[in-house]
Each structure stands twice: as structure tokens, then as C-alpha cells.
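Something for you to look into today, if you have time. Just paste the record in under my message, thanks.
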Amino acid sequence: MTNTDQPLLHSQQMNIFFNGRYTEFFVAQVIPGRGTLSTIEFFEDRADLGEVSRLKQVDWEIPVPDSVQLFMPHSVVLRNDLNAFWTGWVTNETIQAVSIYQERPIEAIRPPDDHLVEPALVLPDQSLHYYFWQPEAGAWALWRHVFEGPLGQPGRVRQERLLQTASRPLYTAAALAPTTEAFPDVPQPVIGWLRQEGESFRVEVARIHNDGMVAQDQSISFMATLFEDQQLALLSIPDGQVHAACIVVSDAGLYYTHQFVFDFEEETPTALKGGRLFAEHSWEAVRMHYYPSVVDAELFVVALDSEQTLVLGKPDSDFVQVWRSEVEEDYAFPWLISPGDRYEARYEHGEIILGDTHVHE
């Protein structure tokens, strides 16, 4: 497991705000030639038609050091309703969190040998939560940095220890469920991870109260050979279900998904039938994304193959779309931001453009 599980990029980062009905798409970038932070906001006008509008670009005039990893957190509250905005960057030693209400970044010191959990989350109370694993006394503990940067007050950050697991967590991820009329409770973060137990693996999820107490946790064991460069896909649904998925490799070198459903109203998680993934060439890295939906759990896979081509697919389908050849350093894995439509951010003449990929079966 790398020190932080990130898409293949450094000078730009993307994420979404999805409230169960509407989607906002944000890109953070370092302005070429200036080395300062900039963010671009897009809004999805018509999910059914794949229409998006570029709302605005903000130049923060904050210098960003070379060779850092930008981050853009995820939220289930739209920006205007949240009345807060966070972005920032990560170095090997620190997290620099930038709040719209603060004149300078809020710094958190990273402990030695920590492993960050992606994505960072913005909660409805406007705080930014960045989770991380830390080895301790032969086990691993889950912690979080909690950043607060309210208007008219100094920014601050604190660290909270949440839980402990017996062996090293792999391919970990974080998620939030949007609230709905039927499920109006304040969303609780969900953390998912894999860990090895002898020759088998165990996928585990934990729901975290905002006060730092672990509300519930569940796990299920399975036998498989895991694909190495991946990140656990995680989807939290308002009714309490959590979906998780990972990529496994058969003895014949074929790729499959293992999917699991955790229902915190039930005692036993469910393992779904694995789905095969079509691949013309061997894969070097893969990221999976669920629809940001309140009811569906359809899974898409974006892979970088041995021909340095980005491809999109989904389980049990020969549906494959080639995105781009000759992948450049500043190219991001696409993010899925609406049911039925996929978008990518790309550079054109020095600017980031959000484009509809027009992918259909």
C-alpha cells in the first residue's frame, strides 16, 4: 500500500459534491507558470442529457510547493448549502488544508509511516475530515485529522484516534451517504478496507459517529488473489447499506470484481457474484467508481493498461471505451459524476476542460 492512494496525477485533483439529486464537480490545479492554487467549479444542469456548465474559476493566489499532491474533498452537501469550501495539498510531512474563510492554509503534521485514506470528507458542520492509518504496537489504528476554519476565527486542527485493527489495512477508502426525505439524519462517514488473514482476505467497513465513536463495524472473509494497484470502491446509501468492491485476478490472468453489501440493520454481510472484466491488454493500475446515487450501486472500472491507454468498463460486459493514448503525467483518471454519463477533465491549451465522454452501450 502506498503512502496515499491517489489517482495518477499530481498537479490537479478532482472530486464531487452530490446531495442525492444534484451534482457539482470541482477541479483543483496549480496554475502553470505561476505555481499558485486555482479551483474550477462545474454544475450539472441536466443529468439526463449530460449537460454541464462551468460556473467559475477562483485563483487563490496561494503558492503551492513543487512535487506535492493536491486534494479535493468529497461532500454530500452542495457548496451553497454547505457555505464552506476546502481544498489543499499533501506533502510527505504535512497536510495543508485551505479554507475559503482563512487567509492561509491550516497545517497538520503527518505522523511517520501514516497512510492517508482517500477521499477527504467535508461534513455538514463545515469541518474537513482526513482519515489515516497509523501502525502502533503490532497493530494498526485509524485516526483522523479534523480541520475547522470558520469565518472570523483562527483555523485549527485536531487528531482523533478511532479504532484499531489487527493487521495492515489495504486499499482503504472513505465515503458519505447523502441525506434524503426518508433518511434525514446527519450523514456519518464510512471507512472501508481490506486486510490479509493467512491465505484469505477480509473486507471490513466501519461507520463513524461525528463525535469520533465507532457506531458499527462489519466484515466478511474471502479467498482470492488481489490486483495490486487498486483502491477499494465504496458507496454509502442513505438506507444504511454500504457497497464495497475490489479487483481480483484469476490463475489464468483474468480480471474479476468481488462485490460485497453491508447492511447495518442485518448481522451478516452479503457477497455478490463476481463479475468478469473485459481487457485486451494487461492492466498496470485500476480505479473503480460507483454511481453517486441514493439507490443504485452500479460499478464502473477505469484502468491504465500496458499500452498506456485509459479504458472504461463494467463487470460482465464487453463495454469498453478507450479514453486517451500516450497518457501524460498531468492526466487524471475520470470521475463518474452522474447516472448515465461520464465526464473527464483534460488539458487543452493550458486550461482544464470538463468534457462529456459520450459513452454508451
